[in-house]
């Protein structure tokens, strides 16, 4: 039966890519209020696609934010139920001028499909939908029961799905969850994710004088919020990469010996791959920890944006009244984002230079998680990847945060299979985001295989 | 004769303010390439006004940048010649949303005229033009010979006037120069400027990875140019206000004892005025020097603008490939800006965190100057201010930079009278720039008086 399913995917490849392309044309940027209608259109697209596949129940669920799309197809009382998660919203595409082709006009170059959201996450949702369609049309129906929940706020607050999952645990009851929203090490080395860091995202606003000042008249005695913000951020993390939030360091657990050994020895030379992807000669960060541990298990503090004063063409000798930075902390599994935000806020106030006023705003976040690898579903995913790639997958911790993975883990108490088909050079959240069409094909094949393997 | 001149100014007050208003409506922002035509229109306005006053020779001089406007009226071979300088270009008006009335729609509120450029410098040029007009129409002609040179690049590079003055010292030969482009202490305490700091303006661009990165995938090992820029700026100047460019500190002269005493004792409580204008409880800066010395004679380093990464609404977990800051150094008189730029560039490279690449771009600058107060023209200005305000003016060093003052001092070797009528709360270079109409009136009266006093 798997043979006809895989043949269906090959035969319908071009049409499936075409469908993905039509979804990618919708600029569903969830963090821009003016894009709300586009986000809704992307949800409608997903609703229609699920109905076309044959899901007997499909719902678009209104929320305080962007809608959720829920579908279920429960035809086998004796088979396990898989809950599939994905998101149909995308990151902002700016800076637009750095895109080689427009972010919402999907374009194929060198075997890659370029578009905002192509790998994060529409393309990876599409490969699951394609595998489900192939089983439905060519495999005699889905081999297991499937529930599917798509959100439109993954790149924004994620609040709606959080509320919905907590309010509807019976409806979402399942034996395992599948999330295709991560990357693998390389196209020849598959990997499964066994840990995700949590996240706290905050905005720090620094204030000085009550109005902008002329540096000629006030320079030397005036507060300068840009400079104060620089001093603060330098104090929160020095060039040594050490984050000076003592509560956070004290709460960071030591990793298991087996993972520590993998990170210390780095047998796949992943550090070399990271350098290559970034185009740098050396990695930065905490010297006391190997790069893979810094990436997967250590807390991080990053500044994502900063603005203040005059940034146009030419020269203006203003001392602005205000400057703003956006920062995030990535958190080891187990830490509570709200608690960590309090620690951050205290550290910000403690380190703000005299003569300035500071505000810290909590913009969102999520908990990390660790997946135990010893269960039927992880074993099935391992076998499916082995079958497609001919190589045994390795278990990795992912530096990124997928708050919903921790949510499903905690509220539904199910194993979460984090099987993603992105590659390290896919430029997630950056200009020229891409998805390898070969990885798209292998992803469809692997998920189709996985669905067959979890049948009892 | 002075009586009829002053009466003319009173009688024509409303029409003179109306003329100024029409000049202010032209958005002559010299640092915006797309405003070049508006800058030219502002030059044409000045040309026409000078012709209307009766100057027998008026020229608009093309340059590589914005035009110069030159006029001369040399009717008295036995009288001294005064060279008047001013500028008709203005600073950018952004952020526009902070203006209570639009920057290029002059509006009177509470006895103040609000508009971009109203005090810096169109309004102050206008009060000189008004005094000249009053002498021409009601005083029997100008009492002395007058040359007048207006530029349109004071808020940008200032390169054209520099080249012109150096190439035409005979044409511009004079006995003294008058510049009305500064502020006085308060509307009851007139002051004359006896020193101006020099300026170096630079842009620092910091680079990390070859493209923007997702902090989930790379955070902890990736270079972050925003953070590196913050570290760099924190190293160039700490919270203690001390600039860590050793060559600059070594080259900073000790001030004369009389000025040092004035700064140490601050008999007019100018520090209190500064706090009031800024709306702050305490001044910041180098604790080892009194505020007035920090403001007038010490070098300063200020960050005027910074940008990098994502600064829109909401959250985006990007690590950008680039971040940029604009900085200036104010310089004690006598230091050469090009030399100081080299020191800055060296300090930037020395203090750039590992793993990042930095570029420093020289955007402009000018030398400082010190005026000796013991000459006929400064004495005449002192008496004119005393006559108008009923209070003896004090001599001050101005923290700002007027490169052309140093240029006239050096190339023409004339005393430079820096007599400005701005007030500390005029919001130069900031939203809601204003000029007190009472100060405008007193300025016209004072300059008219001054012109009479320098007649032999």
Automatic annotation (TrEMBL), chains A, B:
Any single GO molecular-function term of the entry would be: peptidase activity
Keywords in alphabetical order: Hydrolase, Metal-binding, Protease
Q: Which residues form the Peptidase M20 dimerisation domain?
A: 194-353
One biological process term from GO is: proteolysis
InterPro entries xrefs: Cyt/Met_Dipeptidase (IPR051458), Peptidase_M20 (IPR002933), Peptidase_M20_dimer (IPR011650)
Protein name (Swiss-Prot/TrEMBL) = Zinc metallopeptidase, putative
């Amino acid at each position: 039966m798997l043979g006809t399913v895989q043949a269906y995917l090959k035969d319908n490849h071009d049409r499936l890519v075409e469908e993905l392309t039509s979804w990618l044309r919708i600029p569903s940027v969830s963090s821009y209020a003016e894009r709300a209608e586009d986000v809704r259109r992307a949800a409608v697209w997903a609703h229609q696609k699920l109905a076309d596949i044959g899901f007997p129940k499909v719902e678009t669920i209104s929320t305080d934010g962007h809608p959720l799309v829920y579908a279920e197809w429960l035809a086998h009382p004796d088979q396990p139920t898989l809950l599939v998660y994905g998101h149909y919203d995308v990151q902002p595409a700016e800076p637009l001028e750095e895109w080689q082709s427009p972010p919402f006009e999907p374009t194929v170059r060198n075997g890659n499909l370029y578009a905002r959201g192509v790998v994060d996450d529409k393309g990876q949702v599409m490969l699951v939908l394609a595998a489900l369609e192939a089983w439905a049309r060519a495999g005699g129906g889905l081999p297991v029961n499937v529930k599917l929940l798509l959100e439109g706020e993954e790149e924004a607050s994620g609040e709606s799905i959080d509320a919905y999952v907590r309010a509807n645990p019976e409806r979402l009851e399942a034996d395992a969850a599948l999330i295709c929203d991560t990357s693998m090490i390389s196209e020849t080395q598959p990997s499964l994710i066994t840990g995700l860091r949590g996240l706290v995202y905050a905005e720090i606003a620094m204030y000085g004088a009550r109005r902008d000042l002329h540096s000629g008249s006030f320079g030397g005695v005036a507060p300068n919020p840009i400079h104060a913000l620089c001093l603060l951020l330098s104090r929160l993390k020095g060039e040594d990469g050490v984050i000076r939030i003592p509560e956070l360091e004290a709460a960071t657990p030591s990793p298991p010996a087996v993972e520590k050994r993998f990170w210390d020895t780095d047998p796949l030379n992943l550090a070399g791959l990271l350098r290559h992807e970034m185009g740098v000669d050396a990695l930065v960060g905490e010297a006391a920890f190997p790069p893979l541990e810094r990436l997967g298990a250590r807390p991080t503090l990053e500044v994502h944006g900063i603005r203040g004063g005059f940034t146009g063409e030419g020269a203006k000798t203003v001392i602005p009244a205000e400057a703003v930075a956006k920062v995030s902390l990535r958190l080891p599994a187990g830490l509570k984002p709200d608690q960590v935000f309090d620690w951050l806020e205290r550290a910000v106030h403690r380190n703000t230079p005299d003569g300035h006023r500071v505000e810290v705003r909590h913009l969102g976040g999520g908990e990390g998680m660790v997946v135990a690898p010893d269960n039927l579903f992880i074993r099935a995913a391992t076998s499916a990847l082995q079958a497609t790639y001919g190589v045994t997958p390795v278990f990795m911790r992912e530096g990124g945060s997928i708050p919903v993975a921790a949510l499903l883990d905690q509220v539904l108490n199910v194993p979460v299979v984090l099987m993603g088909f992105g590659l390290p050079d896919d430029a997630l959240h950056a200009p020229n985001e891409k998805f390898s069409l070969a990885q798209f094909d292998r992803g469809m094949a692997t998920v189709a295989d996985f669905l067959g393997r979890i049948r009892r």
